[in-house]
Structure formats: C-alpha cells, structure tokens
Design brief:
2 copies of one chain form a homodimer.
Chain A lengths: L1 H7 L4 H22 L5 H16 L5 H9 L9 H7 L7 E4 L3 H10 L8 E4 L10 H11 L8 E3 L2 H10 L3 E4 L15 E3 L5 H8 L3
Parallel strand pairs in A: 1-2, 3-4, 4-5
Chain lengths: 206, 206
C-alpha cells in the first residue's frame, strides 16, 4: 500500500497511507452512526479522495483505481498461514468490514479459500463494526452461542466491541501498540496467531 | 490546551493535544456504536490517558486533572461574541457532546449564559453525535420542525450528520480545512459566525 503510494507521490507515501487508513475507519464509524451506510469499497475510495485533497495531491481516478487495487491484494503477515494451519481442527470464519467482493479477492489472493468455513461481510446488515449488529451476524451464521465464538482482531477497538458484545475476545498485538481506553478488555493479548492454539484448545471453542 | 500541555511536557504539547483530541472524538463514536455510553468528561479523560501512554508520558492523576480543567475554560474564537450578538433576535441553543457540567462551565466562563435559550447535552440520550438520536433532541427541546433549525458546527462530520438528519446545516470553516467525503454536504460554508446573520435572515429561521 505504502510502497505504491510512495512511487506515485514520492516523499508522501507514508503520510498518505496513514491518513487514508485513519479516515477510512472514521468514515465507517461516522456512516454507521449516521445510518448512512455505503459499502467498504466506496468508503475506502472516499477516504482516499479526502486524504489526497488534504495533502494537496492530484489524485486522478486512474491513480485512485491503482491504489484501490491494493485492497484486493493485501499481503498476510508471516504468522498467518502457520497460525491458521494449527487451528484447522476448529471452524474458522472471517467477520469483516470489507464488501463481499473485497473479502473474496483478499482471501483468494492469500491462498486461504479452503481455510475458512464462512466469510461474513457487514454488507449483509449494512452497518459497521463495532456495532453489536455486526457481531450478532456471526452468532446467527455460525449457529453458536456468543461464549463459544473466539474473536480475534489486531484492532483494539474491534476487540473492545466484540468483548462488549459478549465474545471471548483476543487482541492480536503484533506491534506493541498501547491498548485503548474503551471500558472493556480482551480476554488475552497475543503477538501472533500461533498462540491461539493453546488458548482456544483450553477454552474448548468450536 | 496546547500551552498547558507544552509547559507540562516540553516539546510534546502539540503532539499530545492532537492525539488527545482525535482519540476523544474516536472514543465517542466507538462508544456510541458499541452502546457503551460514558459521559464526555470520562471519555475525555480516557482519551488523555491513552494519548499519554502512547507517547510514553507519565501522566499522573494530578497532571490529568490539570489538563482536564482546560475543558471547563475553553476560549472562544474572536468571531464568537460579535457573531452571536448579531443573531440575538433568533432563539439560540447549544447541542453538545459535552456533559451538562462541562457545558455550563464553558458557557459561563465565556460570559454567554444569557445568550443561549437552551443548552442541550447528549447526556440526556446517552449517545453521541452524529447519531440522529442526538439531533432529534433539538427538535423536541425547541419544538420546531427540522427545517426550521439552522445547525452550525466547525466539525465537518457534525455538519454532515446534521444535514443527513434533515437540518439546514452550515459548516464554520475557519481554517480552510478540506471537506470530508461523507455523502452529504452543508447548505453553505462560512468562515465566521458573523456571516450567519445574512443566511438565517434569508431563510427566516427562528
């Protein structure tokens, strides 16, 4: 993401990527609160348009299209493949802000199509995390109790939302980020997906 | 705000103030979405705790208390007093994320107690802007139609929320900030409160 942005706008790649990402999240929260849902593809593009405008970068539609493509080909972290393989005795699912098309493209690009039993997109309920409506989607799709679903995210706010909803929630903190202050706490903090094997085994999650 | 932070943590005042403010807003949106309301005083302190932790600043409770006091004594911009005086033929009200105590303290400190007919806090409905529930509070308290209430904010996202709700909404853009991309637009953009006299006069708002 940052690499392509840097080649396109030398010296501004990191700033653009950060602002784009932060606005992307903010726009999901704001649109969810305003009851003005637009799908993640649209919100992502709108955040990019804002970020470019804010930095004075001429970001034509062709530039936007090229940067947006990155969201269909996200790279996985090194711990992902081995971490997920170790969990294959469990039912694995994704619950994502991404639109169905984005989600399918990313999973396919990462070679994880057969790893996940279910891909769930907020698009079904037309709102965004951390609304309880989104987490409820997983309860219904998986036909499990809240307490039987182990929820993992690298975003602290997403973990906080899942914990407030009632999931056993695990914060994947790869970067030693400080926790947010949102009134709820994860059940445990891990630094890589491999650590889940022990945690989920102990809980007997399905 | 920034001045006191700078004296307390030399060289970090601006960074701390910015991070504090951005987290403060984010926490309101997240808590509103999670249905985990805590009042603005608490959220503001939690955002400060996060910001200090994130920057590695030892922010004891006494430091927190001192910085928090700033939120009870916010300075008004130079256009405020004269701009509001010019509007005194209208009913003026405040609709704020602030808790009632914060709101009363700020208005009193600014010498505006007799200027506003009504001070409305989101605390009544226990959620945050830009939830439609908050804007509805004004409709009920003022006993006016949406179309009769001119809504003004310097936060673009707040204006977008008000416009989506149905208020004629005006963006007070003092700093030439770029507009956000949230699918709604203000009725007009102004650079100081004085410009409202013409706009509201023309609309016949009450």
């Amino acid at each position: 993401m940052q690499g392509k942005a840097e080649r396109m706008f030398p010296g501004q790649g990191e700033t653009l990527s950060r602002l784009w990402r932060s606005r992307q999240l903010e726009y999901t929260w704001l649109r969810a609160l305003m009851n003005q849902y637009a799908d993640f593809w649209q919100v992502t593009r709108e955040a990019l348009i804002y970020a470019c405008r804010s930095l004075g970068l001429g970001c034509e539609v062709t530039h936007q299209d090229e940067l947006m493509q990155e969201y269909l080909h996200l790279q996985t972290y090194p711990d992902v493949t081995v971490g997920l393989e170790a969990l294959l005795g469990q039912r694995l699912a994704i619950l994502s802000n991404g639109s169905p098309r984005m989600l399918e493209a990313v999973v396919e690009h990462a070679g994880l199509t057969r790893t996940f039993a279910t891909l769930m997109s907020v698009d079904t309920v037309r709102t965004y995390k951390p609304s309880p409506t989104v987490y409820q989607l997983a309860v219904e799709a998986l036909e499990l109790e809240k307490s039987e679903i182990g929820f993992v995210s690298s975003n602290y706010w997403d973990v906080a939302g899942a914990a407030a909803f009632g999931f056993p929630a695990f914060w994947l903190n790869r970067t030693k980020a400080p926790p947010d202050e949102l009134g709820t706490a994860p059940e445990a903090t891990i630094t890589g997906l491999r650590e889940l094997t022990d945690l989920f085994g102990r809980r007997g999650a399905r």
